[in-house]
C-alpha cells in the first residue's frame, strides 16, 4: 500500500509539476477569508468576489468592525453569505482580541477561530506558512477512497490514514495534486480512465471509459495536452 501510494504520488507530480492553491491571495488573512468563502462554492466564483472584498477590507480590524449588511453584499454570490459573514466578522474579532490582528501559524490556534476546521487550517498552514498539511476536501476524500488508500469517510481519519502513507514534506503538494487530478481527470461520475496516468496502479480502473479517444474528451483544464501526452507514453 505504501509503495503503491508513493508511486501514485510521484506520477501525479509528473502530471502536475506546477500545482498551487487555486484561491487567489497575498496574505494569510486573505487566504483565511477566501477559504471560508470557498465552502459550498467554486474557487472560480470566490476569485471573482475577493478582489473587491480585499480592497475594502484589508486588516483583521476592518473585518471585526465591518457593517454586516455591506459585507454580505460583497460575498452574496458565494452562497450561504449570512453564515459566512458571521464567520468572517467573528474571525476578525478573534484575531484582534487574541492574536494582535495576525493569523496564527499553528493548528491548535487556527482551529479555535470562527470559520476554521482542520481543512481550512491545513489550507492556510500549507499555502500561507509553508507548514505541511493534508487538505481533505470533496475531491481529495473521493479520490483516495477510489484508490483504496483508505475506506474512512471522516475527513480527520482520512487525513491521518493518508498521512501514514506519504512523507510529511509532501503533504501540501499531494493535496494540490489530488485536487487537480480530481477536477481535471478523475471526475466523480465519469472519470477519464483511458487516459489516466494512474491507470496501472488504480484499483478502480474501468469506473469510466477506458477507450483513450472517449476518455480524452473528458479531460479538463490547461494541462490537458500535457496529461494526454503523458498518458500515451
From TrEMBL:
Keywords: 4Fe-4S, DNA damage, DNA repair, DNA-binding, Endonuclease, Glycosidase, Hydrolase, Iron, Iron-sulfur, Lyase, Metal-binding, Nuclease. InterPro entries: DNA_glycosylase (IPR011257), Endonuclease3_FeS-loop_motif (IPR003651), Endouclease-III_FeS-bd_BS (IPR004035), HhH-GPD_domain (IPR003265), HhH_base_excis_C (IPR023170), HhH_motif (IPR000445), Nth (IPR005759). Its cofactor is [4Fe-4S] cluster. Binds 1 [4Fe-4S] cluster. CDD domains: ENDO3c (cd00056). Residues 37-184 form the HhH-GPD domain. It is an enzyme of class 4 (lyase). Pfam families: EndIII_4Fe-2S, HHH, HhH-GPD. [4Fe-4S] cluster binds at residues 186, 193, 196, 202. PROSITE patterns: ENDONUCLEASE_III_1 (PS00764). The keyword Iron applies. SUPFAM superfamilies: DNA-glycosylase. GO terms for molecular function: endonuclease activity. It catalyses: 2'-deoxyribonucleotide-(2'-deoxyribose 5'-phosphate)-2'-deoxyribonucleotide-DNA = a 3'-end 2'-deoxyribonucleotide-(2,3-dehydro-2,3-deoxyribose 5'-phosphate)-DNA + a 5'-end 5'-phospho-2'-deoxyribonucleoside-DNA + H(+). Its EC number is 4.2.99.18. PANTHER family: A/G-SPECIFIC ADENINE GLYCOSYLASE/ENDONUCLEASE III, ENDONUCLEASE III. DNA repair enzyme that has both DNA N-glycosylase activity and AP-lyase activity. The DNA N-glycosylase activity releases various damaged pyrimidines from DNA by cleaving the N-glycosidic bond, leaving an AP (apurinic/apyrimidinic) site. The AP-lyase activity cleaves the phosphodiester bond 3' to the AP site by a beta-elimination, leaving a 3'-terminal unsaturated sugar and a product with a terminal 5'-phosphate. Belongs to the Nth/MutY family. This is Endonuclease III. It comes from Rhodococcus olei. The lineage of its organism: Bacteria, Bacillati, Actinomycetota, Actinomycetes, Mycobacteriales.
